[in-house]
Design goal:
four-stranded mixed β-sheet, alpha+beta, SH3 type barrels, 2 helices
C-alpha cells in the first residue's frame, strides 16, 4: 500500500495497550540520510483556544507502529493517558 502524508493525516491513531485515541498525525520526523520516517508527531490539544499554550505532544517512534489501516493507525506506546481537566481548569486558574 502506498500512502502519502496527506492520507495519513486523516487516520486516527489509537494506542493498542490502553485503547485510547491519541489524535491524528500532525507532523513527521525523518532521517535525511536514509529518507526513512523516524517518528509521527501528534500535537497536544490547545488550552483555552491556544492562549494558554498546549498540552504535551505525543511523539510516536516508527518502531511502535503496529498497523496502518484504512481508517486508523494502531500503535503500542507507553504514554500516560491525557486527563480531561475541564472542571478543574477554573479552580486552578483562580488559585
Amino acid at each position: 500500500m502506498i500512502c502519502r502524508f496527506d492520507d495519513m493525516q486523516c487516520k486516527e491513531i489509537i494506542n493498542v495497550k490502553t485503547g485510547c485515541k491519541l489524535g491524528y498525525p500532525d507532523d513527521i520526523e525523518f532521517d535525511t540520510c536514509t529518507a526513512k520516517i523516524c517518528k509521527l508527531i501528534v500535537y497536544g490539544k490547545a488550552k483555552l483556544f491556544g492562549l494558554l499554550g498546549r498540552e504535551e505532544d505525543f511523539v510516536i517512534p516508527w518502531c511502535d507502529i503496529e498497523i496502518i489501516g484504512q481508517d486508523t493507525i494502531l500503535v503500542t506506546c507507553d504514554f500516560p493517558s491525557r486527563t480531561k481537566n475541564g472542571k478543574n481548569f477554573l479552580k486552578n486558574l483562580l488559585k
